[in-house]
Amino acid sequence: MHRKYLSENDPKTQLKKYKTQYLSDFLDLYKQRDDCQRKATDFARFCIKPAMEDYINRSLGIDIVEEILTSSHSAQYSSRSFFQYNIQQELLHNEDFDKFDKYIGNYEKYVKDWIYQHILQEMSENESWCKLKNKNLQIIVNKITEAIEQASKGENGVLLPDDTESITELISNMRKYLIKDVSLSTLAKLPIKPQDELFNRVFGCGQLCPFCKVPCEAGGKEHKKHHAALHRPQGLGGYSDLDSSKLVDALCTTDVHSEKTFRNTVTKSQWHPYKEYTTYYPDWHIPPDPTIEASDYWKYVLVKYNDRFAEKYKVKPADVPNAWRRITKEQALKGLREAFNIK
């Protein structure tokens, strides 16, 4: 026991144990800094800085959404139809199969990525980004400074001398640091992502038709049934005829009026009548109407990328009508305008 006591209280052991603390204290004395100043630095670094970053991150997402919706590009987000028109028009002009494929097959991700890129461009081309950063930083700095002043008052309500000088100076320096540190790359880390918020506001549920992959056009997220005014040739969504192994050009609205059957992973590869599609897709309403035609836009897309879609789905190209093959790019654009009632 005696040896243990001597060992634990040996000066050499104690010096080694508290070496870091002694060094810190020595440096404080050498640089004429006191313990309070170091604690102020630690408090600012480990408490105030994370609080400021958290406030900015939580506020920026919604602020960016409001900025976009009131900017010169707000018309693009004024309605789901107008936004869809702009994206599909861009796809037509770019003539990029991979983008068409992503838009059809992974619609929500494609649209959110599109919105994200638009936000980056919008924020970098004007002073909106700097204004939003400065606004949020100033709000939180004012709140923290006010709280420190309240906590540092004496009984008579007067600020105690030198009590807040270290922290307020550090906060000022931290503000300058965060102005530089909160960059456009911060967008990817925001808890409230502006692209998600804009998608939810403009597009609602984002559900796709189980046959042709057209997105639901019902507003908001509270609707009971998904629906779309115009469906697409089902081959765009990967449906093919079993006997011929060819992509099909028929519309869902035509097939749910017919005696045809379908099968997929949802039906566990069992054939099921199109007429009774609600057995497996009760949330969708597809009107049985053989008179409805696909828009010239999607006819043109299927013809132009027939071989590419067939290659993707590992089947043969669709036997499209000859009339579809004569549709020009200009006619496809006209059909797009008509589909979305764009004058």
From TrEMBL:
Superkingdom in the source lineage: Eukaryota
PANTHER family the UniProt entry points to: GTP-BINDING, UP-REGULATOR OF CELL PROLIFERATION-LIKE
InterPro entries xref list: VLIG_GTPase
Stated name of the protein: VLIG-type G domain-containing protein
